[in-house]
Amino acid sequence: MSGNPHNGPAVVAKRGDAPSPDTDEIRELAGAAGYHVVGELTQHRKEDPAFCLGEGKVEELAALVRETDAKTVIFDNRLGPYQTYNIGNKLPESVEVLDRFRLILEIFGQRAQTKKAQLQVELAELRYELPRAEAKSSLAKRDERPGFMGLGEYDESREQDIKARISRISDELETIEETEEHRREQRRESGFDLVALAGYTNAGKSTLLRRLAEDLDVDENEGMHPDLDTTAESENRLFTTLGTTTRRAKMGDHDALVTDTVGFISDLPHWLVESFKSTLSEVYRADLVLLVVDISDDVEEIREKLVTCHDTLYERNEAPIVTVLNKIDKVDEAELARKKETLSPLAPNPVAVSGKEGTNIDALRQRVDEELPDYQHERLVLPMTDDAMSLVSWVHDHASVDDVDYGEQVIIEFDARPSVVEQSRAKAADLAAES
Q1: Is 202:263 a contact under the CB 8 Å cutoff?
Q2: How high is the pLDDT of residue 14?
């Protein structure tokens, strides 16, 4: 269902409850999908159940489509199957009608590189298509031909096929998720804290990841974690990061693996969030979440985005959240102070940085170090044996070693994550039992 960018002419349309609906984001999304926007039409009114816009406005839309020779109409609204059908009936033949979510799915489809991302996109597309297949079935029973107007041809078995495929993909994603959870546990056992970057698309998460990781080469870790990516793209375009990118970073005393995750998008329907929940699990299962915000956005827009992020995160997330106000290079000190004050109920004690210029990155590292679980101090007394030497080597790999004394016995002092301390005690007890 997902293809290459179309680069075709498109008209964007938006109905809004507020006066003069804003089309900036939908234009950006259309561009990201490869469409060339040749016109727009907006209307301030309550939703029309049959057409979304008023019927007269849809006639205007049809005229604009003919005038611009557009091949696609993109609505910055959620369209029901019957609204899509009704609007399509008013437009010139073969003009495609997309709503906001169909467009987002197209972009996701174009960007999906990994098997997991591709499965998630397909799952979201099927969940989007299911109610439309049900609508086509209903229209067919009423002897109306739903074989055009953006709903596609009617196929009697399609509904059952979609449901079966949704079930198969869900099972496959569950298996992938179990594998990834096992890998996360292995990383924790290796002495790494897991830090996730969350936030809206274009907040600068990928740039920030590169800043945090730039003082350590990920290749040091290649043998232990072959899945780690060496680079994270940072481009000024939406949805660059559909899969996840993980890099190693030093945060004070903590060795961390920082993961950049798929960006949030405003007004996402539940079925779309649900389809991408295994990507979001990188956020949900982290030890700490850095919620990245573009501080150069309008303050009301930032507030709305923070509310959406919190709603999504608090549903399943257990880790502490630190809000990072990024792109301070784009605002002056007075504006930054004003926005901090306004946003303080949603973002208490944030860290303000510029990922692009590297400003305050050390302060962010320090804050991450403070927020991550405290290391425990441990002192082990081991027999002087080959197995004990192996344990000393293991502790060096998984902890911050303060001192090793080789006498009649080996005494090692170190600081480590509680789970690593526990493991080291168990291994030491095994050695004591053997000697």
Answers
A1: yes
A2: 95
